[in-house]
């Protein structure tokens, strides 16, 4: 079996951790990246104890100096594991706010923040890893986007804008680079049962007085399939696409079904 080397950003919890665990089952060595190094180390230790191969990486995708340091570390790890041939741009944030409140209480611009994490981070990692993939004539780059990259939702305009940017970039890259041997694809889940959603549920509970079960049921009812998407489902689809999915695939997960768009 050819051993793939995957880099999964935001791999320490939620959807990213499920993808890490799924890729280990097909023999990939996985670099688990997030800002919280200890969380990455904990997951990697579990994987190594179970006989898999995983390495932690401290990385803030919104910070250029962190990206530079990570690039050096990825090159060191290539000597040990081989070069990264599967990049999963999964790290992301979602902060809700009314359209005209574009800054947080601390004065941070919400649009700049979302674009930095959800778009420029993935784009800069592509710029770092794509030249090597093109030289080798092989590589796969998967974006964990969102249904918010396909349609708009109220109160998350910055999130929607950043995910539309990520999806547009992915579609253009697939057309330009796919014929040269590096495939691009995206997964667009509706609401997923992850720590990110748990934070949204806690927010609804605090603001509306609804119970946690009611808030969870509300989010599930918003998915066209009527149920929350599970991280393991996203992970299974990610693994399938990385192994053999078509270039330019945009896969929507609605809580019940998968829809393949281009
Ligand atoms: N949950 C949903 O309903 C849903 C639906 C559709 C799409 N998505 C997308 O799926 C992806 C994963 O979401 P999730 O629900 O698993 O989120 P999550 O539970 O909040 O986990 C986010 C992961 O990203 C990391 N991260 C956050 N900011 C980062 C940064 N600046 N640099 C590097 N890593 C960072 C976090 O670790 P640290 O905090 O330690 O950095 C963590 O590992 C996101 O792109 C999200 O937009 C989620």
TrEMBL record:
Keywords from the UniProt entry: Oxidoreductase
CDD domains in UniProt: SDR_c (cd05233)
GO molecular function: oxidoreductase activity
EC identifiers of the protein: 1.3.1.-
Pfam (any one): adh_short
Record carries keyword Ubl conjugation: no
Domain Ketoreductase intervals: 4-190
Record bears the keyword Oxidoreductase: yes
Biological process per Gene Ontology, one example term: monocarboxylic acid metabolic process
Protein family according to the UniProt entry: Belongs to the short-chain dehydrogenases/reductases (SDR) family.
Official protein name in the record: Ketoacyl reductase
Organism: Engelhardtia mirabilis
Name of the gene encoding the protein in the UniProt record: actIII_1
């Amino acid at each position: 079996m050819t051993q793939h080397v995957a880099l999964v950003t935001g791999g320490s919890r939620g959807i990213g951790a499920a993808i890490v665990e799924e890729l280990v089952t097909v023999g990939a060595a996985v670099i688990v990246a997030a800002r919280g190094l200890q969380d990455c180390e904990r997951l990697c230790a579990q994987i190594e104890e179970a006989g898999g191969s995983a390495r932690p990486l401290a990385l803030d995708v919104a910070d250029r100096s962190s990206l530079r340091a990570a690039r050096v570390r990825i090159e060191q790890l290539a000597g040990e594991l081989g070069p990264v041939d599967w990049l999963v741009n999964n790290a992301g944030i979602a902060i809700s706010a009314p359209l005209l409140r574009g800054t947080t209480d601390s004065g941070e611009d919400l649009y700049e923040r979302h674009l930095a994490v959800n778009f420029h981070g993935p784009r800069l990692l592509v710029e770092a890893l794509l030249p090597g993939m093109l030289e080798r004539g092989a590589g796969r780059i998967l974006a964990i986007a969102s249904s918010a990259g396909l349609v708009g939702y109220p109160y998350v305009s910055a999130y929607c804008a950043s995910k539309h940017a990520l999806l547009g970039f992915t579609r253009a890259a697939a057309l330009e680079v796919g014929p040269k041997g590096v495939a691009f694809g995206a997964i667009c889940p509706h609401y997923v049962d992850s720590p990110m959603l748990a934070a949204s549920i806690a927010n609804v509970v605090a603001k509306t007085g609804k119970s946690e079960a009611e808030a969870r049921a509300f989010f599930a009812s918003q998915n066209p399939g009527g149920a929350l998407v599970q991280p393991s489902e996203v992970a299974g689809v990610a693994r399938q696409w990385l192994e053999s999915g078509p270039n330019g695939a945009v896969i929507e997960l609605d809580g019940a079904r998968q829809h393949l768009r281009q």
